[in-house]
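Researcher: Watch the backbone:
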Amino acid sequence: MTAATPQTSTFDPARTVRLGIRRIGFELRQYFRAGDQVFFTFLFPTVMYLIFATIFTGNIGQGPDAVSMATYYLPGLVAGGILLSGVQGLSIEIAVEKSDGTLKRLGSTPISPVTYFLGKIGQVFVTAILQIGLLMAVAVVLYRVDLPTDAEAWGRFAWVFVLGLLCCSLLGIALSAVPRSGKTASAVVIPVVLLLQFVSGVYIAFSTLPEWLQNVSAAFPLKWIAQGMRAALLPDSFRAAEQGGEWQLGLVALAIAAWLIIGAVLSRATFRWIRRDG
């Protein structure tokens, strides 16, 4: 039976949203009780940032717009954190819940798939905000990174963050249908996520990648999320290192929005309750 099948005779949007908001608290408690998940999704970007910012020192850029390597790595690790929270976190969570019978039990209750998704996506937004806040606090306190002071830069940061996280959350829901069991979920998801981070400007400067690899990575959303974050957190002169020599924020929004739609369609098509009635 598909996720689109209603479990009650009528659909009450207000009740569905209210229950979804209440479920966020339950999802957060479950999230922080799982130590391995907290490390590999919540703390992992900060751990990687500490490694890169400590190993790679000095400045990058020219003249007054030169920034420290700690500053340069920050936008990529923020984008990587968005991918981990949405794609990796949700895909593994849902695959495990499908395997251990949680979805089967939920399928026999009045809870709707929309309520379930609201709880999951709400959990992702809360944990991602805390995760990025921790990452930026480490950058400022330990490495004296100067964050932007103008409203325009933070406006860019906000819409890239929200659009990117929603896109990655829907793709995570869709990807959860791929693992055959909860035991294999990490083995299926983590290599994909890790590979995308290496080719999308998270761990390696995007401008140093071969042109053909830049073109390949442009087919996936992480490259655009990372580019949007660089536009928000780095001096404007760094746009010259991007493909086309510009931040291309219109194209960033279009690419992420396109993947958001793809994620919504795929998650709608692949998600299933596993009911007791089969």
User: Anything to note?
Assistant: DSSP finds ten helices and two strands in the chain.
